[in-house]
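Q: Structure for this?
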Amino acid sequence: MTAVRETAASRRIVVCVGSGGVGKTTVAAAIALDRALSGGRVLVCTIDPARRLANALGLSSLGNVESRVPDHKFAEAGLRAKGELHAMMLDVKRTWDDLVARHAPDPARRERILKNRLYQQMSSALAGSQEYMAMEKLYELATDRDYDLIVLDTPPTAHALDFLDAPDRILDFLGNDAARVLLAPAIGAGKLGLRLAQIGGGYVAKTLARFTGQAALSDLGDFLQGFQGMYEGFKDRAGAVRALLSRPEVGFVLVTSPSPISIDEAMAFHERLHAESMPVAGLVANRVTPDLWPGAAPLPSPEDLAPPLDARGGNDPGLARRLAETLAEHQALASAERRALERLFESVSAPYAVVPRLESDVHDLRGLARLAERL
Amino acid sequence: MVTGKGGVGKSTVSAALAVLAARAGKRVLVCEVNARERIAPLLGAPPAGSSVREARPGLFTLNVTPHEAMREYGIMVLKFRTIYDAVFENRLVRHFLRVIPSLAELVTLGKILFEAKSEERGRPRWDVVIVDAPATGHAVQLLRVPSALLDTVPAGPLRGDAEWMQALLLDPVRTALAIVTLPEEMPVNEAIELDAQVRNELGIPRAALFVNAMPEVRFTHEEETRLESLVGAPPPLGPAATAARLQALRAEQAQRYLARARAALDLPTTVLPLLPVAEWGAEAVERIADAIAAAPPQGAP
């Protein structure tokens, strides 16, 4: 076993984070599979897997529920699992609805919220909603189930840090004190304008209404009133999720590609985890161009390649030149990536793995198992 | 509007389109949306910040942030800066405005579209406004705001703004959306999904597909088969054959995904070359601009 696998296997919860398009989902699935193969009940919760990977995990038609990857999928890949691999795909809207149902004091209030236009917009489209629900689901799974390991894939955010910040933004919205002060006492009585008018001698009320329109304020007031009394429950829960993420049985795995933008994101995320005392289990540099010409010897010229090519069936038309060019380009990319990654490995003290760019996308259990061996 | 999956080269393509327009003697504004500013540096200029700055003769950049856009919008609506400052710079009110769903998107988009229709001495201030829009999901959220408001908000100032914004966005004479992708599985999937959303939900006129970082086909099929047997040869031939085989495989896969994107999207398409490391950054913008000029988006519709 190499570094990242080892540390990941010792945790109960592994959260894969990184900027979009770096292969988080695949790495998450590989870590989960690896542990299931060596024995253990494992769940991987994915967000938006590529279709073929979803198929490989038996996720083609499943929503917010966990399902066990059947034995024949392992057999097809020539694998035998000592443990169990379960997989699920996060359904953001359903997770929201479940959360509302859990906290609503009565069915009438639940229905009122579920039917509110702003709620519907928020639960499906509001930025950060997905991240918040990913955390919420993780907490539910970690407390209500008895998996040996849960691996969470995180939403494909533009910036990796959104994953930690988004839940706060949503909570901020639900528990917005300013909105309460401005709206709450009046909406109960159905007189929105009243309370607003009391602030700044009517100044604020009039200008705000000019800005948003009176009706938009009323919609919002209605929505926030629906959540009144539930906010504390939401907030406690979010606090518990935070606490969970700081426990030593949790490990974040930072996934990055060798591109400078992705590496910067990984470094910023690491700083943030460090500042919040959240444990980092490892670092995965994915899709790295392999070094094919190690050492300091100069790269071969077309003239160097021509004789061995001639000896093995000929060198036309200009094959030696194209080979020399291709190797030189390949190595330029490999060394640019290596320099960028060294900067990352120096500044982050955690086990790391370098996964070379594979010849094809990973889309079956065998591919995942091979990927896991590199971690 | 230039959009696509994160990391596919939207900023590079936006900058290249701007360079092309400026080369044609047009007055161009490139807007980034609440980004770590990339366009100005890509053009070899210092960051512009949240005000319009000239990066090159005739080529201007702007990074639109919600806070600044909210302020400008508020002052415009209310006519008086003093009233805006008294009300909107109030901590409580600012906090409140931040959480009204879609307001940040509305003012951001409003600022951009306001630039697009603004005039100076009776003629348009800009010949072309290029928007380096956020990645797919966030771009859809941004561009959906006017129609969402028209669906949900009754008469009022918000609705009035949503109306002119939506009219501008849907006008095929003035607005066009370009999708950028890479010839790889996930970016192409996302481009196809995005295109469907643009057609079915947003209704913004689609204009072009840019397939970025396309590796060239350098080896024939016969050569590829031969390379496989050469991979095991001692250096220097073995490593060179390995690099060549990886290149060939990548080019082959890229051709497959390009074909898939073309078949699924039915958009005028420009294929942009994969550039060597030495040309990343500012160099890339010039090269990409040349490539677009040499082969502007072609095909249906």
